[in-house]
Amino acid sequence: MSAYPMDEIRSQFPALGRTYNGLPAVFLDGPGGSQVLKGAMDAMVRYMTNGTANLHGQFPTSRETEKMIQETREAVADLVNARPEEVAFGQNATSLAFSVARALSRD
Hints:
Layout: H1 6-11, E1 19-20, E2 23-24, H2 38-49, H3 60-80, H4 93-105
Antiparallel strand pairs: 1-2
């Protein structure tokens, strides 16, 4: 018996249910992208449906966005045993790795 309920986990990634020529599609994900969890898609749709905003504005959507980012930063910090201010979000892991490398190369 598997330690993880793999069918249940796979079912949370909609693209893994895709077929090509009648066979299950195979995704060889790499640094350029990965499959997205259905819950994450739902959260993005909710956010975009309710209105997006620039940060640091006085609009309700700006304040809501900043609160959401802070709560997410705290949750990630808790997950990886870090402080919230040590968590950074960016376009993707590759872009963030390049940013870190550029910052470190200055010294």
